[in-house]
Amino acid sequence: MKTLEGLVAEKLLQIKAIKLQPENPFTWASGWKSPIYCDNRKTLSYPAIRSTIKIELARIISENYPEATAIAGVATGAIAQGALVADLLGLPFVYIRSEPKDHGLENLIEGELPPDSKVVVIEDLVSTGGSSLKAVNAVRNFGCDVVGMVAIFTHCFPIAEQRFKDAKVPLITLSNYNAIIEEALRINYINEEDISILKEWRKNPEKWDPDKQ
Predict the structure, then answer these.
(1) Contact between 72 and 149 (Cβ < 8 Å)
(2) Could you tell me which residues come within 8 angstroms of residue 171 by beta carbon, excluding any fewer than 6 positions away?
């Protein structure tokens, strides 16, 4: 029987929410060259996959963070999925901006978050962990407790794992980089020769040079 991480990997590849191009790398907004590109917002356009992700995220929260009293989605990628999960769990929902609004109330957190709430933060993608933990700090600075984070996918970067450990934030994801590689190989999306490139990139993605592979 396929694991959850394998099943989600299969679906993400199927709808091209995740693309792998070891021989023709993408350029991220950061300027990094990368053999993988992820846009989990595509899952919202596929009702069956959207529902699976919603149900599994809600299940993980119920089983691992039963004390949660609110759900927070990280803008913009996790707003819709976070709201769906909060609705399924019957919990209040807010979303966290990357920067405060420059007008009006200048909110960083949108919605009503009661003081001392026990919050689960939802992300669509965890890369280096910087923006994800910035959202965590926003909730903590608001006077609430972050009991954990759940996400659809993580690249499993060592720097992210260390950052989450230092910040004392448990992270659970539906799928991950290793599962994507395994599933991509199984369906012949990539070949054995591609695996070494994909694994080498993750060791030091910031300085990875595809021309030296």
Answers:
(1) no
(2) 126, 148, 149, 150, 151, 154, 164
From the number of C-beta atoms within 10 Å of its C-beta (0-12, 13-18, 19+), residue 168 rates as exposed
Euclidean distance between CA atoms 191 and 184, whole angstroms: 8
Residue 146: per-residue pLDDT? 98
**Structure confidence by residue, pLDDT tens digits, 47-66:** 999 999 999 999 999 999 99
Whether the model pTM is above 0.90: yes
Give me the pLDDT at residue 101, please. Answer: 53
What's the CA gap between 123 and 81, in Å, rounded?
Answer: 9
Distance CA 161, CA 133 (A): 11
> Which structure tokens are listed for 161?
């794992």
SS3 78: coil
d(CA 176, CA 152): 8
Residues listed for the chain: 213
Those residues with Cβ within 8 angstroms of residue 53's Cβ, 6 or more apart along the chain or in another chain: 8, 43, 81, 152, 174
Nearest to 151 by CA among 184, 180, 127, 130: 127
